[in-house]
Amino acid sequence: WIMHNWKDEECVKILKNCKEAITNQGRVIIIDMIMENKKEEDELTETQFFFDMQMMMLFGGKERNEKEWANLIFSAGFTDYKIITNTPGILSIIEIYP
């Protein structure tokens, strides 16, 4: 649960370093929040927005939706990703491939 502390540019740098450190058969596992794109006012959505505001105020970072995650992943030179868990809750697992 590291990437949400960083701005997009820094996340791309972190991911590029990870890509350099793994083999072509390797993968990088990200455990972080995936923001929902819905406008419903349930407790989960409120919690996600609360974390998003905290990251912006404290670190200049943010919580990201799937499209924003994909942009970071592909900008860092990775070719594919898979969301292993994106169930209601705070954290999801994203597996990314070189």
UniProtKB/TrEMBL annotation:
Domain of life: Eukaryota
Keyword annotations from UniProtKB, A to Z: Methyltransferase, S-adenosyl-L-methionine, Transferase
Molecular-function annotations in GO: O-methyltransferase activity
Taxonomic lineage: Eukaryota, Viridiplantae, Streptophyta, Embryophyta, Tracheophyta
PROSITE patterns: SAM_OMT_II (PS51683)
Keyword Plastid: no
Source organism of the structure: Phaseolus vulgaris
Pfam families membership: Methyltransf_2 (PF00891)
GO BP field: methylation
Positions of the O-methyltransferase C-terminal domain: 1-78
Protein name in UniProt: O-methyltransferase C-terminal domain-containing protein
InterPro entries (alphabetical): COMT-like, COMT_C, SAM-dependent_MTases_sf
